[in-house]
Amino acid sequence: MIYVYLFIGLVIAQRLAEVVVAKSNERWMKERGAFEAGASHYPVMVALHSCFFVSLLVEVTVESLTWSIWSVLPLVIFLLAQIIRVWALVSLGRYWNTKIIVLPDADPIQRGPYRWIRHPNYLVVVLEILFLPLIFQAYVTAILFSLFNVVMLMVRVKIEEEALDQDGRYQEKFHEVGRFMGTRKR
């Protein structure tokens, strides 16, 4: 059981490290005239992600869930999602953030996974919220928080795309790129 807690603890530590990077990137962008959009829903998103980890820890503890043969596929998907996460973060560089921070006049990033998917990091979050609990057969957390996350992303993606498209360049650059599933056919 200790390995389960260590694994989940590593994921939590990764998220906390990302918050530190995001704060640094936020300062850097705001020093250059960036603004925040969707600030009102951000605390709800933080609460959702925090409660996700609490729920996962409670479920694995109460149900004494651990690794099994059924852990292999969700673990592989989760680890592949981490590769995409790092690729997306590196591709955005200083523009990556957990908040919606927009630097006016900055060209939309179209390198890395952003060549094919508008929101690869959100795709990663969808995969993580579903498959991290499935590694331990924590079905309640997987289903419940996947549903909550869908609602959150419906709000967030709309606000983010509107903020990024204030001058029309975002839609111009990404009108042929799918939100989560790759390039659309012409």
Automatic annotation (TrEMBL):
It is a multi-pass membrane protein. Signal peptide: none annotated. One of its GO terms (biological process) is methylation. PANTHER family: BLL3993 PROTEIN. Pfam families: ICMT. GO terms for cellular component: membrane. The chain crosses the membrane at residues 41-62, 69-90, 122-148. It comes from Alkalicoccobacillus porphyridii. Its main location: membrane. It is found in: Membrane. This is Isoprenylcysteine carboxyl methyltransferase. It comes from the Bacteria. Keywords: Membrane, Methyltransferase, Transferase, Transmembrane, Transmembrane helix. One of its GO terms (molecular function) is protein C-terminal S-isoprenylcysteine carboxyl O-methyltransferase activity.
